[in-house]
Specification:
Elements (H helix, E strand, L loop, with lengths): L22 H7 L2 H4 L3 H17 L5 H20 L11 H13 L12 H37 L4 E6 L2 E7 H25 L2 E2 L15 H7 L4 E2 L3 H4 L4 H27 L7 E2 L18 H24 L13 H25 L1 E2 L1 H7 L7 H10 L4 H18 L8 H7 L13 H7 L8 H15 L3
Parallel strand pairs: 3-4
Antiparallel strand pairs: 1-2, 5-6
Helix pairs in contact: 3-4, 3-6, 3-8, 4-5, 6-7, 6-12, 6-18, 7-10, 7-18, 10-11, 10-12, 11-12, 14-15
Length: 467
């Protein structure tokens, strides 16, 4: 409320002003409607800051004790949903500080000593990104283990591998699931790298140039789990690279999930019928009783645009900002918070769908009945007999065209028929032309042979186990 001169006594910065803030300005500039997501990080940072102020003699023991007790009370209120949020206090930081004053009185007014909202926000946001990066790394590790389980259970099931949405070469289901695991492994590594890079505390940077008071930045950093402190306050309070890094990792993860969702949306159709997704992850039609719609996968695909939009939104905010802090940076949070929650939900649901769905072996065998997928094997076998690859490629192309005209399968050709195209084909060659043999023979690192898939699984498990 205004002070006796009509100013902003309720504002932490109100001493400078002679009239109250316009109500529409208050609503336009507030962030408490969304930055309350930072309450855990704000309390954590305030606890560490208070302990440091005690250490350097800027707080008395009793004052620090009361502040810590007040913060505990606020933490309880936040947890059980009884915290009295006030829009006029603008953001989560002012809301907590004002509530702390209501609970403990004068000591609360000392908590902001040697601290600006600029470095306070920077700290809270870093802690939030660390927390969410670790959460995502953990969820992705669980997802990868689900895929490892599916890979081992279906290691001998053969299915067509595709390029250009055309059947290309036979692979195993184990190899297929591990291909998606490789993508998720890279996503996990990106989130872990964000965590590793965010190891410097910005607290103590003040508004932009530190403070004249005798604080101990390294004490705060250590208590919060950082390995050190940022090297330049002007940069630290305006740095949002780590938010962009998180959103980039979220975009890449979303792209991977979206491509997979598209694949299984196709595979779950009657035309493909390769995968059966449990009813609990499907929806129906209000008009057509026969429908089983893959709405969850469609939404995962659709929400990718939302995550990409958040990344572009943040980049647009950052592209023209002069040093150091500018209020534009308030707009970073909604992009970050929504993207983080979107990818968390997408990963959680897709992990369950991937682990509980079943590939239809009979339908896959039907799809493999057209054995053109073995054409590459035939060309390579001719190379093994001394035929130049380009010549071998042309020979097999003519064989495939012949089989199409005659409506024959490659495996149905006799040795005599094969030799009419090239005398280099060995005796009883047609017998080896099976999808199972094609998979087993690709026994090289990164290949689909069962022993190679298992070897790669063990490597990934060692990485997930931290060995």
């Amino acid at each position: 409320m205004p002070d006796q001169d009509g100013g902003n006594s309720e504002k932490l910065w109100g001493g400078r002003f002679s009239e109250p803030t316009d109500r529409e300005v208050e609503m336009f500039t507030q962030s408490i409607s969304f930055d309350r997501a930072l309450w855990r990080q704000d309390i954590k940072g305030s606890r560490a800051h208070a302990a440091m102020l005690l250490k350097v003699g800027l707080l008395a023991h009793e004052e620090e004790r009361r502040i810590q007790e007040g913060l505990s009370r606020i933490e309880e209120e936040m947890t059980n949903g009884t915290f009295p949020y006030r829009d006029e206090y603008e953001d989560i930081h002012m809301n907590i500080e004002k509530r702390l004053f209501e609970l403990v009185g004068t000591p609360a007014q000392k908590l902001h000593t040697a601290r600006s909202r600029n470095d306070q926000v920077s700290l809270d946001l870093r802690l939030y990104v660390i927390d969410r990066s670790r959460e995502m790394a953990g969820l992705l590790a669980e997802f990868i283990r689900v895929l490892i389980g599916q890979s081992r259970r279906m290691r001998d099931l053969i299915l067509p591998g595709y390029t250009h949405l055309q059947q290309a070469q036979p692979i195993s289901a184990g190899y297929y699931f591990m291909a998606h695991a490789e993508r998720l492994l890279r996503d996990r590594q990106r989130f872990l790298e964000i965590d590793r890079r965010l190891n410097l505390s910005p607290l103590g940077s003040g508004a932009l140039a530190g403070t004249t008071l005798p604080i101990d930045r390294n004490h705060v950093a250590r208590s919060l789990g950082f390995s050190g402190v940022t090297g330049n306050g002007l940069d630290a309070v305006s740095d949002r690279d780590f938010v962009a890094d998180f959103l980039h990792a979220a975009v890449m993860l979303s792209l991977h999930l979206s491509g997979w969702a598209e694949e299984w949306i196709l595979w779950s159709t009657r035309e493909f019928g390769f995968v059966r997704i449990p009813d609990r992850y499907m929806t129906g039609s209000s008009m057509m009783p026969q429908k089983r719609n893959p709405d969850v996968l469609e939404l995962i695909r659709g929400k990718t645009g939302r995550v990409i939009g958040h990344y572009m939104g943040l980049a647009t905010i950052l592209k023209g900002l002069p040093l150091s802090y500018n209020r534009d940076l308030q707009e970073d949070k909604e992009h970050l918070f929504d993207a983080a929650e979107t990818v968390r939900q997408s990963v959680t649901l897709f992990s369950r769908i991937a682990g509980e769905s079943v590939l239809d072996g009979e339908r896959l065998r039907e799809a493999l009945s057209g054995d053109e997928l073995l054409a590459t094997d035939m060309a390579e076998d001719l190379v093994r007999e001394g035929v130049p690859f380009r010549e071998a490629h042309a020979i097999v192309g003519r064989i495939v065209a012949y089989c199409e005209r005659e409506r024959r399968k490659l495996a149905s050709l006799t040795d005599e028929e094969l030799r009419t195209f090239s005398p280099a084909f060995p005796e009883q060659y047609a017998r080896v032309l099976t999808p199972e043999n094609a998979v087993r023979r690709r026994n090289l690192p990164g290949g689909p042979a069962p022993e190679q898939v298992e070897a790669r699984i063990r490597e990934i498990e060692r990485e997930l186990d931290g060995r």
